[in-house]
Amino acid sequence: MLSIVLSGGVTGIDGYVVRVETDVTRGLPAFATVGLGDSAVREGRDRVASAIRNAGFRFPMDRITVNLAPAGVRKEGARFDLPIALGLLAATDQVDPGALERMVVVGELALDGSTRPVSGVLPIALAAEREGVSSIMAPSGNAAEASALDSLRVLPVASLGSAVRVLSGGEADPCPRAPRADVSDVAGCDLCDVKGQLFAKRALEIAAAGGHNLLMVGPPGAGKTMLARRLPTILPPLTRGESVTATAIHSVSGLLPPGSGLLETRPFRSPHHTISSSGIIGGGRVPHPGEVSLAHTGVLFLDELPEFRRDVLEALRQPLEDGYVTIVRSMVSVRVPASFALIASMNPCPCGHLGDPGSKCLCTPAAVRRYRLKLSGPLLDRIDIRVPVTAPGVKELQEGGQEPESEVVRRRVEAAREMQRERYHDLADVWWNASVPVAALIERVRTRPEAIEAAGAAMSRLRLSARAYHRVLRVARTIADLASEETILALHVLEALQYRGAE
Question: How far is CA 466 from CA 223, 302, 382, in A?
C-alpha cells in the first residue's frame, strides 16, 4: 500500500513542504529511503523501526520504500522520523490515512518512541501556511515556536503513541503558552552602569537612532565592550515581522532556546576573532546562516577588529551595503537577511597604549602603521561613526553623575525612528537613515544652504569619497531627528563630521 504524509524541509532560512511517500509491498524485508536525504535522514530508518516496535505497533517485515519529494532538493536532519513512522502505520492500516490530510508533520523519534525537538519548525510552519495547510504536528518542545502563527492549528505530541491517538480523534498534548525568547545575552545591562564616556554614549545613541555602524578606538579596559553590550538596551522593541524573521534564522541554526516562542529582544552576536569567513557569512553543503544573519535586526559586535582575518573583514562589505548575503553552493543558491548594526572596537596600536596618558606605548611607528592597515579603506568607509574611548579617571568612577538609564535614551531613539518611519513610509522595509537608498535620501532630506556648504568643504578638505559624503549626510539627518528638527542644520553636519574623522 501507498501512503502520503506532508512534512517540511529548509533551504537557507526558507521552508518548503516535503511529500513523504511510503510504499509497502510484499518481498524480502528491506528499507530504502530515497530523495537526496543526508546521513541523518538515511539513519532514520533504524530509529523509526525501533520506535514503532517499542511504542507497541507492528513494524512490517516487507519491502519498504520511502521517497522524499521533491527528489531534486537535498534534505537534512532527523525531522522526517515522525512523518515516516506515521506513513508506515498508515500504509499498514494502523492509522487512518485520511486523518493525515492537510497536515504537516515534523519530529525526531527516540528509540522508545518519544519525540525530540528539531530545528527549523517556524520556517516550515510558514511554508505550510503558504501552501494552505490547516495544521502542524510537532514535538512538544517545538509547539510554542509553531504556535507563533495564528493561522495554523498546532498539535503537540510527546511520543509516537500520542501522535496516533491524535489521528484517531483523541486530544493532543497540552500546547504550552509561548514564552518569549531572549538570545541577546545582555540581560541586566543598562546604560546607566557606564560612568562618564559622554562622547561615546552620544555616538551610541546616534548609532541606535539611525541604524549606523560604529567603531570605538581606545586602550584596553576603557569600556568599549561594556558600551557595546548596552546598545541593544536602547534599541526599539522588535516589530512582529522582525521577530518572525529573526526567530526563523535562530530556529534553522538550532539556537532557539527549547520550548520558546518568538524572539523578544534584538540579537547580540559577538564572535571570536578566529572565526572563518563561512562562519561569519554562512555556508556548508546545505547553506546555513552565519553570524551576520544571526545578528539580523540586532547587533554584531566585533571586538579587537584588526585581529580578524582579512578575508573575514572583507566579506562584511556586501551585507553592510545590501542588508543580505547570497550563499552559492554547487547545488543551491540562497539569499539570507543580514541587516544589522555593526559595532566594532580596536586598540590604537598593537600594545593598546598609544595616546594613553597613564601608560607608555612601546610600539614603533611602523608597527602602528601595519596594525592599522589591517583594516581596508572600503571597510572603514562603511563605518559611519568612529569615536575615541578613553579610560575614565578614579574620581569619575567613584562619583560619576546622574547617568541616563537605557529606558530614557530608548524613548529618544524611538522618537527619532518614528520621524524616519514617516519620512520613508512608502519604501519597502527601508525606514532608517543608514539604509535608505541614496536617491531617496537626497530627495527627502531637507538641508540648509550653510549645511551643504559645510559638507562640501569637508569633502574637499578630508578627501571624502562619494559614499563617505552621503554617510555624513545620513548621520547628520539622524542627529537632526534626535533634535526633532525637520531640516539639517550646519551644526548637525559639523557633529557628523566630528564622528567621521575621529580616531
Answer: 33, 26, 11
Q: 140 Cβ partners below 8 Å, 6+ apart? A: 115, 156, 157, 158, 173, 176
Q: Using CA atoms, how far apart are residues 438 and 279, in angstroms rounded to an integer? A: 31
- CATH 3.40.50.300 fits domain 191-407: yes
- How many residues are there in the chain? 503
**d(Cα 441, Cα 34) in Å, to the nearest integer?**
53
H helix runs in 174-238, sequence order? 198-210, 224-228
Q: Which residue has the cell 543580505?
A: 324
Tens digits of per-residue pLDDT, 85-121? 999 999 999 999 999 999 999 999 999 999 999 999 9
Could you give the CA distance from residue 106 to residue 431 in angstroms, rounded to a whole number? 37
Q: Which CATH architecture has domain 2-167?
A: 2-Layer Sandwich (3.30)
SS3 407: helix
When the pLDDT of each residue in the chain is averaged and rounded to a whole number, the result is: 90
- The candidate with the shortest Cα–Cα distance to 5, out of 74, 71, 97, is 97
3-state secondary structure 467-495: HHHHHHHHHHHHHHHHCCCCEECHHHHHH
Report the predicted TM-score, pTM, of the whole model to 2 decimal places. 0.90
Strand pairing partners for 8?
Answer: 17
pLDDT digits (tens, 9 = 90+) for 31-62: 999 999 999 999 999 999 999 999 999 999 99
Partners of 288 in the β-ladder: 283
> What's the DSSP call for residue 253?
T
Distance CA 46, CA 176 (A): 31
pLDDT tens for each residue of 237-281? 998 889 999 999 999 999 988 778 888 889 999 999 999 999 999
Q: Inform me whether the pLDDT recorded for 501 exceeds 70.
A: no
Q: Which of 34, 122, 120, 35 is nearest to 77 (CA)?
A: 120
Whether the CB-CB separation of 415 and 202 falls below 8 Å is answered with no
Under 8 Å CB-to-CB from 1, ≥6 apart: which residues? 23, 24, 91, 92, 93
Domain ranges of the chain: 2-167, 191-407
Burial 359-373 (b: 16+ CB within 10 A, else e): eebebeeeebeebbe
Full DSSP string of 76-116: -SSTTHHHHHHHHHHHTTSS-GGGGTTEEE--EE-TTSBEE
Q: Do 269 and 294 meet the contact criterion of CB atoms below 8 Å apart?
A: yes
